[in-house]
Amino acid sequence: MATSASTPNRGARRRAQTRARLLEAARELFAAQGVDATRVGDISERADVGAGSFYNHFADKDAIVEAVLSEAAEANGRHVDELTGSLDDPAEVMAVAHRHFVRLAQVDPTFALLVVRLDLSHRLLSATLGPRATKDLEAGVEAGRFDVPDVGVALHAMGGALLGVMRGVIDGAVGPDADVLHAEGVLRSLGVPKAQAAKIARRPMPER
Question: Do 72 and 31 sit in the same domain of this protein?
Answer without folding.
Answer: no
